[in-house]
Structure to design on (217 residues):
């Protein structure tokens, strides 16, 4: 007598085809979306469902019966703690890079091969093989902080210039505003930026002069 399956159940229908079902992590009984020609095919399907549960990749089939575009838009809308600029960025990425491919697909129908193919298509069509994102004002703060560090500004002064909080302990014992130090650091940063801009202008002038000379030759 054949042993009982340790995961899921299969039974033969009056039509001769086989039906498979299993109890998911949610405690609900989930039937296969279709019947199978043989018991072996039904068993293989159950084995795949079990493997997804073990890997943590299982998706509730009912929850997945929603198109990706609506699911993603709702996820962004209901995500707690997102800043307005982050929400704007997520919506841009969804609208420009995800919805054209996955917008009308059901979440449950999106699998790894679809994602790999989408990624390859995006890399093939993106300029410089990078997906561009919109520029935001915060980029200036990040560039300034990186530049200040690169010219030797102490980390605590960089944080002060960005007006970041000192932390609970430091704010109790250290009341210095570092006004002179911050002013000096910003003067050095300004001189560094101007020098870089002058070098670029000089390089552009030399390039223009070389073009002009080649044109007269």
């Amino acid at each position: 007598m054949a042993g009982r399956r340790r995961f899921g159940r299969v039974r033969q229908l009056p039509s001769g085809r086989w039906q498979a079902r299993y109890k998911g992590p949610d405690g609900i009984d989930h039937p296969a979306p279709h019947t199978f020609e043989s018991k072996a095919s039904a068993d293989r399907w159950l084995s795949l469902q079990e493997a997804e549960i073990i890997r943590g990749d299982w998706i509730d089939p009912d929850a997945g019966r929603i198109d990706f575009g609506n699911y993603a838009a709702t996820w962004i809308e209901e995500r707690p703690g997102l800043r307005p600029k982050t929400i704007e960025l997520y919506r841009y990425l969804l609208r420009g890079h995800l919805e054209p491919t996955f917008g009308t697909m059901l979440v449950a129908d999106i699998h790894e091969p679809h994602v790999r193919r989408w990624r390859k298509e995006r890399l093939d069509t993106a300029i410089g093989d990078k997906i561009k994102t919109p520029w935001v004002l915060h980029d200036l703060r990040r560039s300034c902080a990186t530049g200040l560090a690169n010219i030797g500004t102490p980390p605590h002064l960089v944080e002060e210039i960005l007006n970041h909080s000192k932390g609970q302990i430091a704010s109790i014992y250290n009341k210095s505003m570092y006004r002179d130090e911050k002013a000096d650091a910003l003067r050095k940063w300004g001189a560094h930026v101007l020098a870089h801009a002058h070098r670029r202008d000089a390089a552009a002038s030399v390039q223009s002069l070389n073009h002009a000379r080649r044109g007269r030759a």
Summary: The two ends are 96 Å apart (CA to CA).
